[in-house]
Amino acid sequence: MNLPIVDPAELQRPVSTNPAADTKTVALIGNPNVGKTSLFNRLTNLLAKTSNFSGTTIEHRVGTHRLHASETPEHESVLRIVDLPGVYSLDGKTLEETVTREYLTGTREERKVPLPDALVVVVDATNLERSLFVTRQALELSKPTIVAINLSDLAERQGIEIDCEGLSSKLGCPVVPISARTGAGIQELETKMLEASGGDAPVAAVPECTSCMTCPYAQGHQWAASVAAETSKRKYVASSEWTDAVDRWMTNSWVGPVAFFAVMLTLFSLVFWLAQFPMELLDSVFGGLAEVVASVIPEGDIQSLLTDGVIAGMGGVLVFLPQIMILFFVLTLLEDSGYLSRAVVVVDRWMRRVGLPGQAFVPLLTAHACAIPAIMATRTIENRRDRLVSILVIPLMTCSARLPVYTMIAAMLFPRQALYAALMFAGAYFLGMFAAFAMALLFKWSILPGNPAPLILDLPPYRMPSIKNALRHAWDRGLAFVRDAGTVILLISLAIWALSTYPKLPEDQLLSQMAAVQASDAGVDISNSDDIERLQMQLSEEHSALGRMGKAVQPVFAPLGFDWKTSVGVMASFAAREVVVSTLSILYGMGDDPGDDEIASLHSRLRSAKHIDGTPVFDTATSVSLLVFFVLAMQCLPTQAVTKKETGSWKWAFFQFGYMSVLAYVGAFVARHVILMLGIA
């Protein structure tokens, strides 16, 4: 199975706007981690759209690949490539399997994506037998099918030889060896895809087995083992001494946790160090945009709406986009390298002791992107008790929506101190993990007793990660963050601006209240114009509708050190966590002159924010209290809806919200008062 060396430039296809181009749909299916998405990225050159199947949170990606049968444009063919979720079978044991099967069989009405004209089953050349089970089920769909044997270059280095002609004869369909990473074999695959989607390729006959005919499941696996044994062989056993030695250290009960902590600390240090310049650049862009708007539009409510509402609200959140993208870039490199699977083994020792199954590690890891798909991923956990415990603690893991809050607080506490900020960031991550494990242990001792199932895990080989794939994944996650959060943040930003602006405080009442504050000796210097301006702004905001609501709820949060503005931000964030950043951007930006030469960043405004008596609003104790609250609180309505759907009852969704709210309040209270007792400034 020799693969030609292909120049990546030869794989680029000219984009045509020829309206006569014939569009066919090709679906990519296969096991998880066989390189299916890498093949998709190779074919589409990242010109893809990610969306969910109707009524689910299961993602699929659709892209376009253009082929030319000749040099004339009228012979151009367009292939619509659909990247389906990774599945081990089409039996419907998980939501991914059910959705994939329903789409392929046409039983799911999917308006966004037409039914496929052909299938490409991506299999792992280093583990052929495992991939053949879903291949057999794909052949049973009676659609033109191609088998793409990915990781063929890696299989050759491991001494594995696959008889592609023999396998093609066994399956009754074309078999093409490829390497999605290097591009080898892609041109031949393109030709086969064009033939299959055009109906030129024959429909494969369903393979039959003469044994175990009464058990379709056993029949399929025995058939896969038989075909793999007949069509693949190992010429020699590649040395694995160095990988075994690395694994002995990385999974060691003492060295493993230390290595895990070191990797995470390095990760967060890189996030802060690399993101510093693009964040400052974005901050300057939004500041400059506010200056331009202020110079064009006369001073008044319209100017304030645009500068203090729209620009401040959106800019306050989008400025953290570089950190989110860098975080996912590095995490993708770690995942592709094979290290994260070793981290599963390390963490499993802790998880089993607190009552969490090893199978929950993947959902818990997924929760660092978003809790919603993580909760959906618990369907792979067969034991109901294990699954319920996992669902209840998953939202305690740090998701991407928390990152802007962590970054905001880190910038307040440790401006331009990347190491300390990284330590705080890592501490927040580990606090969420510790809280999840502690609550799982508490549930094990109380309402959900029992021992979790043991972990069975196939460690993938160490591989050189693809920078290109990591960049693509980071770009996808960044776009998803902007798309998902943008609309909500904009609407809430406009609402916060309106509520904090109206009703306006009459001038005579403003003057009388200012006189009363000055007479009370509250620390306001009447000779200082900045103090007078700050007092005017605070009195006007407290008179607004939002100020009155904030004053009403502020006593609840006073033990945590929150003023009324922070209390409003916390209450608004129960719809979506990241909203607190835009809310504070607006509330602490009101009154700033956007025409100044320099516009203070959100971090600077929060650091310099003062109470009427002149004391800082965000001292160390209050900042840490706010951080702990956001680490532990349930502030995501969609997550609550998914919890209800997956557990089948609002009881567990309300219980999840209740215990996390109490945990967040108590944790923030304890953190604040411990810092005050220690006298940390």
Automatic annotation (TrEMBL):
<dbReference type="InterPro" id="IPR050860">
    <property type="entry name" value="FeoB_GTPase"/>
</dbReference>
<keyword id="KW-0408">Iron</keyword>
<feature type="binding site">
    <location>
        <position position="41"/>
    </location>
    <ligand>
        <name>Mg(2+)</name>
    </ligand>
</feature>
<feature type="transmembrane region" description="Helical">
    <location>
        <begin position="354"/>
        <end position="376"/>
    </location>
</feature>
<dbReference type="InterPro" id="IPR003373">
    <property type="entry name" value="Fe2_transport_prot-B"/>
</dbReference>
<keyword id="KW-0813">Transport</keyword>
<feature type="binding site">
    <location>
        <begin position="30"/>
        <end position="37"/>
    </location>
    <ligand>
        <name>GTP</name>
    </ligand>
</feature>
<dbReference type="Pfam" id="PF07670">
    <property type="entry name" value="Gate"/>
</dbReference>
<feature type="transmembrane region" description="Helical">
    <location>
        <begin position="388"/>
        <end position="414"/>
    </location>
</feature>
<comment type="similarity">
    <text>Belongs to the TRAFAC class TrmE-Era-EngA-EngB-Septin-like GTPase superfamily. FeoB GTPase (TC 9.A.8) family.</text>
</comment>
<dbReference type="InterPro" id="IPR011642">
    <property type="entry name" value="Gate_dom"/>
</dbReference>
<keyword id="KW-1133">Transmembrane helix</keyword>
<feature type="transmembrane region" description="Helical">
    <location>
        <begin position="254"/>
        <end position="275"/>
    </location>
</feature>
<dbReference type="InterPro" id="IPR027417">
    <property type="entry name" value="P-loop_NTPase"/>
</dbReference>
<feature type="binding site">
    <location>
        <begin position="150"/>
        <end position="153"/>
    </location>
    <ligand>
        <name>GTP</name>
    </ligand>
</feature>
<feature type="binding site">
    <location>
        <begin position="83"/>
        <end position="86"/>
    </location>
    <ligand>
        <name>GTP</name>
    </ligand>
</feature>
<keyword id="KW-0410">Iron transport</keyword>
<keyword id="KW-0547">Nucleotide-binding</keyword>
<feature type="transmembrane region" description="Helical">
    <location>
        <begin position="481"/>
        <end position="500"/>
    </location>
</feature>
<comment type="function">
    <text>Probable transporter of a GTP-driven Fe(2+) uptake system.</text>
</comment>
<feature type="transmembrane region" description="Helical">
    <location>
        <begin position="657"/>
        <end position="680"/>
    </location>
</feature>
<dbReference type="InterPro" id="IPR011640">
    <property type="entry name" value="Fe2_transport_prot_B_C"/>
</dbReference>
<feature type="transmembrane region" description="Helical">
    <location>
        <begin position="420"/>
        <end position="443"/>
    </location>
</feature>
<feature type="transmembrane region" description="Helical">
    <location>
        <begin position="617"/>
        <end position="637"/>
    </location>
</feature>
<keyword id="KW-0342">GTP-binding</keyword>
<dbReference type="GO" id="GO:0005525">
    <property type="term" value="F:GTP binding"/>
</dbReference>
<keyword id="KW-0479">Metal-binding</keyword>
<keyword id="KW-0460">Magnesium</keyword>
<dbReference type="GO" id="GO:0015093">
    <property type="term" value="F:ferrous iron transmembrane transporter activity"/>
</dbReference>
<keyword id="KW-0812">Transmembrane</keyword>
<feature type="binding site">
    <location>
        <position position="44"/>
    </location>
    <ligand>
        <name>Mg(2+)</name>
    </ligand>
</feature>
<keyword id="KW-0406">Ion transport</keyword>
<keyword id="KW-0472">Membrane</keyword>
<protein>
    <recommendedName>
        <fullName>Ferrous iron transport protein B</fullName>
    </recommendedName>
</protein>
<dbReference type="GO" id="GO:0005886">
    <property type="term" value="C:plasma membrane"/>
</dbReference>
<dbReference type="InterPro" id="IPR006073">
    <property type="entry name" value="GTP-bd"/>
</dbReference>
<feature type="domain" description="FeoB-type G">
    <location>
        <begin position="23"/>
        <end position="199"/>
    </location>
</feature>
<dbReference type="Pfam" id="PF07664">
    <property type="entry name" value="FeoB_C"/>
</dbReference>
<dbReference type="InterPro" id="IPR030389">
    <property type="entry name" value="G_FEOB_dom"/>
</dbReference>
<feature type="binding site">
    <location>
        <begin position="55"/>
        <end position="59"/>
    </location>
    <ligand>
        <name>GTP</name>
    </ligand>
</feature>
<dbReference type="Pfam" id="PF02421">
    <property type="entry name" value="FeoB_N"/>
</dbReference>
<dbReference type="GO" id="GO:0046872">
    <property type="term" value="F:metal ion binding"/>
</dbReference>
